[in-house]
Specification:
mainly alpha; CFA77 protein; elongated; about 170 residues; CFAP77
Length: about 170
């Protein structure tokens, strides 16, 4: 049984101090200086992208040639391999036009002279003053009594109807 508070002992005997664990590489084992100084780099090969087949153009060409059956279309597709044109569309794997940048444009730099002279504070204060003047004018307009029909008729009375003294004969007894 193991002793209390101590791990169990290993049954295997360990090799001596001159034993090397792992595999010893005679050609490459130069330690840290060789690892830092000689990186194994991979040369990038130019990748030529194969464009997909343009079935619309091939179908149009087959009709122009007079193909009518499915077998004739298949033979035409087999011998006339038309590929899509590379239009430099910005998709994954396509070419990017020179001079094109992605992302948001940088903000224009803040003129430090205006910051030091508190120019932005003055502009803000002018805006606040203009806003309070507008609010004051609007408040004055709200305080006025709005004109309704009664006040309008008091100021502009309707013309008085003139009474006519002629009545038809049949309404005389009424």
């Amino acid at each position: 049984q193991p002793e209390v508070g101590k791990p169990m002992r290993n049954c295997y005997s360990l090799p001596g101090p001159d034993f090397t664990y792992g595999m010893y590489m005679h050609k490459r084992d130069g330690g840290v200086p060789e690892a830092i100084g000689h990186w194994e780099s991979v040369k990038a090969r130019p990748h030529k992208r194969v464009m997909p087949r343009d079935f619309v153009a091939m179908g149009r060409g087959a009709v122009d040639e007079g193909c009518t059956t499915a077998r004739e279309f298949t033979l035409y597709y087999k011998f006339m391999d038309i590929r899509c044109k590379d239009k430099n569309i910005l998709r994954y794997g396509y070419k990017i036009p020179p001079g094109m940048t992605f992302g948001r444009p940088p903000r224009p730099s803040t003129p430090i002279f205006d910051v030091m002279q508190h120019r932005y504070k003055e502009l803000w204060m002018e805006e606040q003053r203009a806003r309070t003047v507008v609010q004051h004018v609007v408040k004055k307009k709200i305080g006025e009594v709005r004109e309704n029909r009664t006040t309008f008729l008091r100021m502009h009375p309707l013309p008085v109807k003139e009474e006519s003294f002629w009545h038809p004969q049949r309404f005389v007894k009424v």
